[in-house]
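re: the backbone from monday

yeah here it is again, tokenized this time
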């Protein structure tokens, strides 16, 4: 019987394709549309998504699907509003990826989260608020030189924000486990930044006790006060990450032969601690009997996560330590030969002496495999590569466990790629497409071979390993060059069709891990194709729009077939009808902002004074707004004596600059404007901003010029001047670029 998640996924993928199509279309900056046409189209799309969301609350059909779709289109409307804000920045050449863009976007997302209490809005607002903060403190394409005190203040701000959010959710004022996990993770990332001695050379070491204290408090709280295996696991991950950071810092400062031996001892202690923690985790009781089954499953998953991560940590530290020992110990021998010999000892010992603790065995074996890969690449000997290929195959056969076999199968694939590259032409770049194609086909054949095996654990593990590997190699293949006419288009089409089909196939068969992986690969393909320059954004936009409509139509037809089934209930508590007035107010405010921003920008373009400035462009790309030219003007860099005078007078932040017109018709820097002074006939005041991280640079808000896709190089080579409109209040807007 068709599952409800199958219909949900179909509509989700279809609407995701439509939203991606909208982003691609506007990012292409199609020159065939006028400014107001783009604004009207953007506003119309926002209105369309919101209108559909409201209409879906008025009509009941498809056995409750309307409720799910109403939520989906409401989120889509908020996303298209963000696209509309980005489009205004593109049309009127304001800052690319500026914090203001994400700040404006985050406000309605946050309001919708408060009104609807829908998890998608919680996550969207969380992400947007953090991007806003990151863009504010670390704006794109600006080299920042913050003092350590400023860095500490920034990291503390992130930490405090997420502590407060975590406590709010813990108190039950917000119901969202996902948001709680996000805030907890970002909190510990902020603590790692605070204790990072590479970034904070003076104060980082003194903040280590704070990080240790908070991690210890988390362990105490989630063990004694409120037992929670999931967050205990996350605390263990935070402790492991902190240990790795400290090891790397110590290795950089005190590396020696003795230190690397200590590193190997540390790995042994880390693995022993993992074993004790894993056993302890299983003994933690649930808060109540009703949650015992759920917590038992969560504990098993949490234990596996901790075990896997500690193995990865042990592998990292162990590999660094082993490489350090080899490098410093093999004074009279070639280190690559010593590394190969040691890796061979590690692998053979762990493969054929099974009576070793599983965690220790897998960690040492992984160190051996990784060291072996490094050594055979270093040595470049075809026969040695074949030896490791055979050893990785033996490892897959002898090891037991789902993740262990998945790992050794990955090692097998890496070794096979090395063998193929050495056999074909020793890493010739021209042959990598053929190698990836062979790996894709080879894994697909292995996937087919599992069908002839009898039912059992080995068959399922071979199926998973070969399936995942073939899909990953197929995704890589979509980025390679043509090896025959239209091979690039063929590989992309094959990947999209196959992965889309597999998403529905695995959801229908209720294979959670398989469906999750294929969904990740599906969205990864969609996201990365944005940056793929072999096909224009405009063409991608049209294709994605068509595919999105097809997906929605097919899903709708599928849903109609099961509309009378009592087992299919896609309804979800959603109060849009009851909270419609509040939602409508937020929507009106969004359109009010779009209208005000458009009107004020058009007014400045119409009434502002036109000045001509000399510039120096470069060519990057914005996340949402497409290609643009990053501009630097001759007036951006002020004379050293002027900057020194401003520093002496404590002038920072907003400044007013007087520009004067020279004999060539260019406006150039004249002086800093003082209050109530009288301007000359050919003088005009422009507002600028002096940032502490740019010693002698002034920003005017006209540093970005958005262009149609793929034209950046021509603009960079030919544009030497910019025509800028400056209003009576000193605000500037870039109108156009020119060769003369």
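seq for it, each position gets an aa:
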């Amino acid at each position: 019987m068709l599952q409800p998640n199958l219909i949900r996924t179909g509509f989700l993928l279809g609407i995701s394709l439509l939203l991606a199509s909208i982003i691609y279309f506007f990012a292409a900056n199609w020159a065939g549309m006028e400014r107001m046409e783009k604004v009207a189209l953007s506003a119309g799309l926002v209105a369309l998504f919101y209108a559909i969301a409201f209409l879906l609350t008025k009509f009941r059909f498809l056995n409750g699907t309307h409720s799910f779709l109403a939520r989906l289109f409401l989120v889509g409307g908020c996303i298209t509003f963000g696209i509309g804000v980005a489009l205004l920045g593109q049309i009127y050449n304001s800052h690319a990826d500026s914090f203001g863009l994400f700040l404006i976007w985050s406000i309605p997302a946050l309001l919708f989260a408060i009104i609807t209490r829908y998890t998608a809005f919680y996550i969207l607002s969380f992400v947007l608020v953090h991007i806003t903060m990151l863009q504010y403190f670390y704006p794109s394409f600006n080299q920042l030189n913050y003092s350590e005190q400023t860095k500490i203040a920034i990291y503390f701000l992130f930490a405090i924000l997420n502590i407060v959010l975590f406590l709010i959710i813990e108190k039950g004022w917000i119901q969202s486990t996902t948001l709680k996990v996000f805030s907890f993770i970002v909190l510990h990332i902020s603590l790692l930044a605070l204790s990072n001695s590479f970034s904070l050379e003076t104060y980082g070491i003194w903040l280590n006790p704070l990080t240790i204290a908070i991690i210890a408090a988390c362990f105490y709280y989630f063990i004694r006060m409120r037992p929670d295996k999931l967050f205990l696991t996350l605390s263990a991950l935070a402790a492991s990450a902190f240990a790795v950071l400290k090891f790397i810092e110590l290795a950089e400062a005190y590396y020696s032969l003795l230190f690397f031996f200590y590193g190997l001892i540390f790995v042994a202690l880390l693995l022993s601690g993992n074993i004790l923690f894993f056993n302890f985790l299983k003994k933690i009781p649930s808060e109540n009997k009703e949650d015992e089954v759920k917590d038992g499953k969560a504990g098993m998953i949490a234990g596996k996560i901790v075990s896997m991560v500690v193995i990865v940590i042990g592998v990292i530290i162990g590999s660094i330590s082993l490489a350090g020992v080899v490098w410093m110990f093999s004074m009279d021998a070639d280190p690559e030969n010593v590394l190969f010999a040691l890796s061979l000892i590690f692998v053979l010992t762990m493969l054929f002496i099974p009576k070793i603790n599983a965690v220790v065995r897998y960690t040492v074996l992984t160190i051996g495999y990784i060291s072996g890969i490094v050594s055979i690449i270093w040595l470049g000997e075809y026969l040695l590569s074949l030896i490791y290929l055979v050893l990785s195959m033996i490892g897959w056969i002898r090891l037991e466990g789902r993740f262990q076999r998945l790992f050794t199968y990955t090692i097998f694939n890496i070794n096979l790629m090395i063998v193929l590259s050495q056999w074909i032409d020793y890493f010739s770049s021209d042959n990598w497409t053929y190698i990836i194609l062979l790996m894709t086909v080879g894994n697909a054949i292995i996937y087919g071979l599992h069908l002839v095996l009898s039912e059992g654990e080995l068959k399922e593990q071979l199926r998973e390993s070969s399936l995942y590997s073939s899909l990953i190699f197929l995704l890589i293949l979509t980025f390679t060059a043509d090896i025959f006419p239209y091979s690039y288009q063929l590989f992309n089409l094959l990947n999209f069709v196959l992965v889309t089909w597999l998403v529905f196939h695995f959801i229908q068969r209720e294979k959670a891990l398989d469906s999750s992986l294929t969904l990740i690969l599906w969205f990864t393909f969609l996201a990365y194709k944005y940056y793929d320059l072999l096909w224009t954004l405009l063409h991608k936009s049209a294709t994605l729009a068509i595919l999105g409509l097809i997906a929605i139509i097919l899903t709708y037809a599928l849903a109609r077939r099961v509309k009378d089934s009592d087992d299919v209930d896609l309804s979800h508590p959603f109060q849009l009808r009851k909270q419609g007035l509040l939602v409508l107010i937020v929507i009106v405010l969004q359109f009010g902002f779009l209208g005000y921003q458009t009107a004020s920008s058009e007014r400045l373009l119409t009434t502002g004074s036109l000045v001509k400035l000399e510039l120096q462009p470069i060519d990057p790309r914005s996340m949402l707004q497409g290609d643009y030219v990053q501009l630097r003007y001759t007036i951006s860099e002020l004379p050293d004596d002027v900057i020194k005078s401003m520093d002496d007078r404590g002038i920072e932040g907003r400044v007013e600059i007087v520009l004067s017109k020279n004999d060539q018709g260019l406006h150039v820097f004249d002086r800093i404007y003082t209050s109530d002074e009288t301007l000359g006939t050919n003088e005009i005041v422009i507002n600028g901003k002096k940032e502490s991280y740019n010693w002698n640079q002034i920003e005017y808000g006209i540093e970005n010029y958005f262009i149609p896709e793929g034209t950046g190089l021509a603009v960079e080579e030919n544009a030497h001047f910019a025509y800028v409109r400056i209003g009576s209040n000193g605000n500037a807007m870039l109108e156009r670029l020119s060769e003369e």
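Residues 64 and 487 are 43 Å apart (CA to CA). The longest strand covers residues 609-618.
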